[in-house]
Amino acid sequence: MKNRILISMAFLFMLKLPANAQFVQQVELEDCREKAVQNFPISRQYQMLEESSRLKVENLNANYLPQLDLNGQATYQSDVTKVELDLPPTFNVSIPEPSKDQYKLTLDLSQVIYDGGATSKQKDLEGIKLEAGKTSVALQLYQIKERVNQIYFGIILLKKNKALLEVLKETISAKLKTIKSAAEHGTALKKDVNNLKAELLKIEQNMNNLEVEIRSRLQMLSSFTGETYQAETKFVVPEIEIDLDYSAANRLEYRILELNQEKLGQNRKLVNSKNIPRIYGFGTAGYGQPGLNMLADEFESFYMLGIKLNWNIWNWNENKKEKHILSLQQNILETEKEAFGLNLDIELQSKIAEIEKYQGMIKKDAEILELRSEIAETSSSQLDNGVITTSDYISDMNAATRAKLDLEVHRIQLIKAKIDYKSSKGEL
């Protein structure tokens, strides 16, 4: 019963709406950022990177599987092994001589028994590379969010400017009607009427310019998010709280440097694995002329099974040099991390100073607006009484409008400065 009553009330409310009523689209910054990230082509690289890494790991896992090769060869040699015996004629003994043309077809099987942990370390390295690739994509998408911030607040500032001009236009238009009436009765000059008309044209010109800029910014935002925005769309000014504590580790650029260090560390482990012996099992099955019996000049099948050890016990200090190179690269990355942390400290201090600047300006803006509003009200009364000219009135009205615009702009710029601070901290 309760649900029916609510539905009926909602239906009646809809019937009472004007025929031309439209719901104003409302947009929030976080929603725009998320849609921009989802819409940007680079976001599809996550899946590609994961699939590429999965295939690489599968290839590495194949190192543990038996390797099977089919080999064949046909040769002719200038000489063969001969056994010559100087025996008395009474010994009717001859040792056969192999043919100079030989044929062989073999199936060779090789199985890794122990590879010194090289494959396992390569898989770990691939995992680090995958995270580094995904972090790099995340950094590019983070930069897209920052661009959306710039466009979003640019639209808010332009729309705020236009709204104030609309108010000023209404005020000047109302005053124009009063002065027109006074001019018709001879208590005002035609010059005063023309001054107000010219000021209205100037306001309209500025509003047209703002409309063009707003449309341009809306189109830019649409390109990023894939959404359509109208001139009437309301862009909500977010409420932002900031925390002065920060860590360079929150920045994606810093994480990339850390991952590069991890890659170097893993490469060092791979270099160490080169000093460890490898053990392989093998088997060969074949058919050829001759077989394993070199003295049998006929085609026959054969096979061989075995195990072998491979150990590179000396490589002219190549491994030692590689590890030294990796250590130097590690040190280089460490200095880059320190430099990044220092630059971040400087950047954040600058952002904090900017926030404090706008906070101070807003306090003064409020005082200035109060004074300018009083002056504008007085000027309006004085113009009606013929005490001042329209030029003085327009000047005072413009000053009051500028004071209100300054206050609104600085409020928005304060929020933008806080978002920039959070962006520099890596908290978008």
Structure in words:
By secondary structure, the protein is of the alpha+beta class. It has helices spanning 2-16, 29-39, 45-61, 118-184, 190-225, 252-273, 318-384, 390-425; strands spanning 26-27, 67-76, 101-114, 234-235, 278-289, 300-310. It has a single domain (24-65, 115-276, 311-425), classed as Outer membrane efflux proteins (OEP) (Up-down Bundle). Helices cover 63% and strands 12% of the residues. Strands 2-3-5-6 form a 4-stranded antiparallel beta sheet, with no helix packed on it. The model is unreliable at 1-21 (pLDDT under 50).
Overall structural domain count: 1
The stretches of 5 or more residues where confidence is low (pLDDT under 50) are 1-21
Helix content: 55-70%
CATH-defined architecture? Up-down Bundle
At the fold tier of CATH, the topology name is: Outer membrane efflux proteins (OEP)
How far is the first residue's CA from the last residue's CA? 46 Å
Strand order of the largest sheet: 2-3-5-6
Biggest sheet layout: 4 strands, antiparallel
Q: What's the gyration radius in Å? A: 42 Å
SS-derived structural category: alpha+beta
What keywords describe this structure?
single chain, about 425 residues, alpha+beta, Outer membrane efflux proteins (OEP), four-stranded antiparallel sheet, 8 helices, 6 strands, about 65% helix, disordered N terminus
Question: Which SSEs are present, and which pair or pack?
Answer:
Blueprint (H helix, E strand, L loop, with lengths): L1 H15 L9 E2 L1 H11 L5 H17 L5 E10 L24 E14 L3 H67 L5 H36 L8 E2 L16 H22 L4 E12 L10 E11 L7 H67 L5 H36 L3
Helix pairs in contact: 2-4, 2-5, 3-4, 4-5, 4-6, 4-8, 6-7, 7-8
